[in-house]
Amino acid sequence: MKRALVSAALAVSCTLAGHAHAGGLYFSDRGVRPLGRGGAFVAGADDAGAVYYNPAGLAFTGHQLLIDAAWLQYSSTYQRKALLHQNDPNTGQPTNQTFVQTFHAVKGSSPVLPIPTLAYADNFGVDKANFALAAWAPYAAISSYPQTFNGKPAPQRYSLISLDGSALAVVGLYASYKPDKHIALGAGIEMLSGFFTSTVVFNTCPPDRFICAPEQPEYDALSRLKVGPIFAPTGTVGAILVPDDMLRFGLSFHLPYWINSPAKVDVRLPSAPIFQNAKQQGNSANVKFQLPWTLRGGVEVRPAKRTRVEVAGVYEAWSMHDSIVMTPENIKLTGVSGFPSEYTVNTIKLDRGFKNTWSVRLGGEQGFDIGDYGLDVRAGVMYEKGAIPNKYLSALTVDLDKITLAVGGSLHVGKWRFDGTYARVMGTAAKVDPKTAGITQVNPVRANPPQYPDRINGGYYKANANVYGVGLAYQFDASDKKSKPAAAIHGSAGASD
């Protein structure tokens, strides 16, 4: 039975993880059961989903197989506003006059693809210890925008067209140790692996307004960047303190991810006459960026055997993600009129300008008996500050202040637990003044910055998401009764600790 379950789970997980799109930011916390509690699952972590929130929770998990999947139905709206500088048509010199151009709003959407979790926990005969092998993908904001709108180039094309083709997953090995009923410790080593793919438009207009305008479509170059294979090792540690049966304290820390990976850059050169005979030589590059460390803490109160309420907080050091640096490896353009016979593309740095952020969560669950079965109902709420100052918001990553409302439940049938959840993630709309917008247009053929750089991220941003999740857990070491409440299976009231 065990071999059959694990084999089936691995097959399902590999199928899902191979197609689980991920990119941009984590728009929501993850895991079907934890998300049903609003992400408040640090002190109360007690099943295999603990590998993400607090690995010390494995000490209360027992021998378990957990599989779940969720769809992040993400949608965004962006209406661009651009600051235009008026030049004298006779001399080409700036007149110091400006005006704002407002574009039509465009909408981003996400694909219908499940984001999986697979975790298997077992003590392998080691007293006071438990171990887990897990694979999961982040609940990231995936968005694709149109390349054209009303027959014209789409206004967000210089920030993003699509993230299709991205596939990222985390695989980890975890262990917990519980020397007595009052304390549990946990740790894990992980590897972020896969590919990150983005399609975006560069503009290759040489010196500003010399022979072309900054966003003249004939000078647009459609670019596809594929970063990977990514192999970024990291780790996590955690602890849970249980002073008595009614109270638990939890704390966990997750190390950053350092991305330093090869990449391929393929460009469809512009249609302008100076590129008529042009070709790209070479497409290899290297990409570097960092994703943040995370600190989680929580307090859970258990006033009754099957009643649980947790307050938790999370701090994320997103200021580490200050830039993305792409270093071409001998990528050249040849045959461009007016250029050297071979034009070498230099390092491109994308300023991100992220800041540290925090969130607070409140959630809980209540168990009931329904005939021979057990039923858990849960709910939670979370408030999270956006990690991006308005100055650096862009269609590539729309991260806003967010409120998440979540509900969920579990049905216990013998050794099986069937989970479901729904969460609504509501972002607070933001406006970026085009006069203070901080992201400039990338131009790989411009050696010196123009006097008035073309800033591409001004405008109005809105983003929301629905999260639908289902899952199941099989508890190998549960009793053979038809119903086994969660408190008894996982020792959630401390009675089996």
Explain what you see.
The protein is mostly beta strands and 497 residues long. It has one domain: Beta Barrel (Porin). Helices cover 6% and strands 51% of the residues. It contains 4 helices and 26 strands. The protein has a 14-stranded antiparallel β-barrel with strand order 1-4-5-8-9-10-11-15-16-21-22-23-24-26. Strand 23 and strand 24 (416-427) form a beta hairpin. The longest helix has 16 residues, at 2-17. The radius of gyration is 26 Å and the shape is elongated. The two termini are 27 Å apart.
**Alpha plus pi helix count:** 4
Structural class: mainly beta
Order of helices and strands: HHHEEEEEEEEEEEEEEEEEEEEEEEEEEH
Neighbour order of strands in the largest sheet: 1-4-5-8-9-10-11-15-16-21-22-23-24-26
Rg from C-alpha positions? 26 Å
* Mean pLDDT rating: 85
Helix content range of the residues, please? Answer: under 10%
Strand percent estimate: over 45%
Q: Could you state the CATH homologous superfamily?
A: Outer membrane protein transport protein (OMPP1/FadL/TodX)
For the record, the CATH architecture stands as: Beta Barrel
CATH topology: Porin
Largest sheet: 14 strands, antiparallel, barrel
Number of strands: 26
